[in-house]
Amino acid sequence: MDKQLEKYKSKIFINNMLESFIRIGLLVILLLWTYDIIKPFVIPVLWGAIIAVALMPLTLKLEGVMKGRRGLSATVLALIGIAILVVPLVIVMGSVFDGVVALTNFLQSETVKLPGPPAKVAEIPMVGEKVYSTWALFATNMEQALMKYSAEIKAAVSAFAGVLGSGLATVVMFIISLLIAAGFMAHSESMATAVKQVSVRVVGKHGEEWAGLIAATIRSVLLGVVGVAFIQSILIGAAMFVFKIPAAGLITFVVFILAIAQLPALLIVLPVIIYVFSYMDTTPATIFTIWVLLAGLSDNILKPMLMGRGVEIPMPVILIGAIGGMISAGIIGLFLGAVILAIWYELFTTWMKMPQEGVGDTEVESVEPDQSDSGSTVQPDSK
């Protein structure tokens, strides 16, 4: 009888296990299919949410000006954002096109003749002799040099075209994200309520506080990283256009990317300064140098002023999260990394504030004997 009961229980257990396995497997397949369907929309929606959180205060102010029409306010901000994306792109593409045309005309000219390399070039450690011989070949026989390095030139042109194509795709993605952000901002109350409900459901009573922390961290990163990069690129780009530097639009765009990646703008500014001193008079070249150097170092002043505003998280935590997130996940990692580290910082500080188990009990136990002793010494005196 016992053996039959054990066999019956074992059969039920196996059936339940197989049924659970099949259900879980079907759920996993459903989740994978769902992810494949929504995968193209994940990044634009994330960017739309980030942009909506960052621009929401401005939307509310514009709503007051437009007599409560939030949808119109969100649409206007989205169109302004698209213009900010498209106009610099047109300028950069025009600058690139002019540069390519000028280079093509220069190479096709029969009078093309580069100056020979200085003798000091060969003295540069490790690469001096190679640079000297290549430079000398281009200076003495341009046609032969182009034939010899045709493979390298084609690879460089292909890489450059790939970068341009990727940049265009990124701009299109951001335009879509701005339109999504406009929808989020137009229905901000319902979206905020849903986010708070999900946050409370997932992490408990601190969910609503953390939802506010995420929004504040996104705004902090936008001001401290992207905002500073934009200001820095505008300052340097203004110098490039004022002094009519070739490919000024492209240089400004590269400065913006370097600043977002937290790399010093001097990486591209210093070669331009050397180029300026090679053909300009001393006075304008000095003015240009002072201008771009101050603009290149401006992030050291702007970043402490803007990073961490409105957030109780220390600036180094947000900055480390932004840099690490960008290294691991690209530009969107700027925000995701900062948000993740900010949440971990809040978890750590909350854990540190929690009382240790047993500490309160020990203190009570150490006090009670003293009170009983004091009572025993007082009673004889009262008698």
UniProtKB/TrEMBL annotation:
Residues 360-371 have a biased composition (Acidic residues). It is a multi-pass membrane protein. Keywords: Cell membrane, Membrane, Transmembrane, Transmembrane helix, Transport. Residues 359-383 are annotated as: Disordered. Residues 372-383 have a biased composition (Polar residues). InterPro entries: AI-2E-like. The keyword Cell membrane applies. It comes from the Bacteria. Its main location: membrane. It is found in: Cell membrane. The chain crosses the membrane at residues 12-35, 41-60, 72-97, 156-181, 221-243, 249-277, 284-302, 317-345. The keyword Membrane applies. Belongs to the autoinducer-2 exporter (AI-2E) (TC 2.A.86) family. This is AI-2E family transporter. It comes from Photobacterium rosenbergii.
